[in-house]
Amino acid sequence: MYKLKAAEWRPQHFKWEVKDRVGTITLNRPERKNPLTFESYAELRDTFHKLQYTDDVRAIVFTGEGGNFCSGGDVHEIIGPLTKMDMTGLIAFTRMTGNLVKEMRTCPQPIISAVDGICAGAGAIVSMASDLRYGTPECKTAFLFVRVGLAGCDMGACAILPRIIGQGRAAELLYTGRSMSADEGLAWGFFNGILSKEKVLVHAQDVARSLAEGPAFAHAMTKKCLHQEWNLSIEQALETEAEAQAICMQTKDFERAYNAFVAKQKPQFQGD
Questions:
Q1: In angstroms, rounded to a whole number, what is the distance separating the alpha carbons of residues 44 and 32?
Q2: Stretch (H or E) spanning 164
Q3: Is 228 exposed, middle or buried (0-12, 13-18, 19+ CB in 10 A)?
Q4: What is the rounded distance in angstroms from the CA atom of residue 60 to the CA atom of residue 209?
Q5: DSSP secondary structure letters along 60-109
Q6: d(Cα 247, Cα 90) in Å, to the nearest integer?
Q7: pLDDT confidence of residue 23
Q8: pLDDT tens-digit series, residues 234-256
Q9: Tell me, what's the pLDDT at 11?
Q10: Gyration radius (Cα) of the chain, Å
Q11: Distance (Å, whole) CA 32 – CA 9
């Protein structure tokens, strides 16, 4: 069977490096705290999909440049346009973002996130959807969808986050949108370890290299079983949340949040 050569891939919207059978994805817009765009969402989704067809990558590390992991969807390049989309466009977008999580969970390679600084919105989802997470004392993880007038159910958060940190803790983070500190994340089981800013990426790559050196088929089977052996399939949860989130994107509160952000003001939500 023909296998794709991951070392030859040249993504346009993030850095990609393969060394010692470890693929490292680096979000590289540090001046904006590494936000995602429509294009980077799609390219990440496609990259994780292609990983099932390659054998020169056996583990993945996901990180960001400039002292931050990812600030979520770009306010001007994503949130602004979403306020003007019709329902057809909105559901296409929420299904695409959900498909990124689906591809991360179904690609056979273990994914390790090295989290520093801001890890918010879709960035928090990417770390959540990874298999292992290592943070720094400075990292702040926020599922902040409610703060822009949207539901906490986004990209599988209501299905996955409670399984990592527990229902009550997940509910608090999803209802309030507050940041989870590094100490909380470690105590609650979100992070597998906390390391210094200088060591977190090195450690994540060391762990990935160790996994890459292990039984690739067995690791893939472990990941497949971890993914499948839930009472509710992630596919069902992703579709439910895609529809709910697309509906939320039609509310006036969502548009108010965007306008307030542009004006550097605190949004005043009215529930409509």
A1: 18
A2: helix 157-165
A3: exposed
A4: 9
A5: EEEEESTT-SB--B-IIIIIHHHTT--HHHHHHHHHHHHHHHHHHHHSSS
A6: 8
A7: 98
A8: 888 888 889 988 888 898 888 99
A9: 95
A10: 18
A11: 25
User: What does the block give as tokens for 228?
Assistant: 């499948």
CB 124 within 8 A of CB 155: no
Beta strands in 143-249 (DSSP E): 179-180, 193-194
Indicate the residue type of 174. Answer: L
DSSP state of 177: -
Yes or no: say if 21 and 108 are a contact pair by the CB < 8 Å rule.
Answer: no
How far apart, in Å, do the first and last CA atoms of the chain sit? 54
Q: Which amino acid is at 92?
A: A
Structure tokens at 141: 């993880």
Torsion of CA 30, 106, 41, 124, to 10 degrees: -50
Main-chain phi, psi angles of 163, to 5 degrees: -75, -20
* Per-residue model confidence (pLDDT) at position 2: 67
Q: Are 62 and 44 in contact (CB under 8 A)?
A: no
pLDDT tens readout for residues 35-47: 999 999 999 999 9
Could you say which residues of the chain have pLDDT below 70?
Answer: 1-2
Tokens of 226: 């971890």
> What does pTM read for this prediction?
0.90
